[in-house]
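From the pipeline queue, job 12 of 40. The input is one protein chain; the requested action is below.

Action: predict structure.
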Amino acid sequence: MWSKRALLTDLYQLTMVGGYVQTGKTHQWSNFDYFFRKVPDNGGYCILAGLSDLIEYIQSLHFSREDLSYLEGLSIFSHDVIDYLENFRFTGDLWSVPEGTVVFPHEPLIRVTAPLPEAQLIETTLLNVMNFQTLIATKGARVRFAAQGDPVIDFGLRRAHGPEGASMASRAAYIGGVDSTSNVLAGRLYDIPVSGTHAHSWIESFPSEIEAFRAYADVYPKACLLLVDTYDTLHSGVPNAIRVGRELKEKGLKLMGIRLDSGDLAYLSKEARRMLDEAGLKDAAIVASSDLDEWIIESLKRQGARIDIWGVGTRLVTSFSHPALGGVYKLTALNEGEEQMVPKIKRSDNPEKITNPGLKKVARMVDQEGRIRGDVLFLDEERMPERIPFKVHHPLVPHIQKTYPADFEMRELMVPVFQKGKLVYNCPPLHEIRDHTLGNLHKLDAAYKRFHNPHTYHVSLSPLLFKTKGHLLREAMKS
């Protein structure tokens, strides 16, 4: 997939690379951080996803002869720039928080330390991959939370943003906690369980609904789940499904369930459950679809809907309510002839857009019960304190401070992925990444997971980082 994507970038990345080449910056080392400033849907957290695809992209990144011919035809780049691109390979370091980790605003999730043009060139695709998959993984986690343990199926393929976007969305939704997908290609590519029933067209293709149901039961006697709202859910669909369910029962088989795809799902599911139970089909599950999202599922749960499995499509794979994650990629340090890189800061009249300078690491604070209680950013050269009370600073509001008690454990989040251009990280299987998500969410208090006014998770700065940031801001104001 990624071997022919070297040109999947913004033109200004290439013009900057060209400028770096022509101004002698090809060996000047830099550090960039990937992070986001705001959680989608006014939520309390995000789930990081996309690292596996980013690794594949970086490993395969090279410019073909056809790519170079195209760039030459733009009449923008010198021969020196084309020669540089012809031999391009990523030779830097990349650290990342593992996929499936619960993450929060203003903390570095990926740290790229590399020669300036190399770190610059990968920006656009890094943002494209990580922003989208993190967005959908987060939406998947929210949908799963609303479902309160009920299975959730990704039904979003037909409404997704193109073929590649659809498979990435299915992967990310699974990382977020969705149980299966209707997307067969995603099932094959990523070993995600696949699920599905049939459409209304199956019913309409037969002379009657009962004949359609019987034919489906004949073809799939061990996986018979019937869509019951083609004509009249309670007066036709459910009664006919019950007839077929009884016929299967006489053969020693069972009706797997029914699917509701329209109407008042709370009322219909309760009535359908009553009818199925009275007919002796208590094991038949009720699946619901129809433009569901976390808020609708939460509402249906409050109304006592008798739904066992949730099929969520458009609003999941497009993150319909919040269609983009505003992740950014900012320069935070640069080698200026010193032995160590010099911290850099972006100043802004908008406090949220002021960056945290330097090469940083992220420590997660964990209490004695294993719950995650806050994150702290340290400069990379700092030694993290152990088993002592520790005061930290708010990244945006200088007078706000917080002290963590001595019995909290610090766990560093970032792991090395590339070192000197060599891959040193083994990507876990997708089901392990999903398990990591679920484990992280289990350790996160419900106050951060609620959909309305979630509690704000603390991401703080160490005293040294806070001091460094303040110094650089004061210096920037003088210039």
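Job complete. The CA atoms of residues 46 and 138 lie 5 Å apart.
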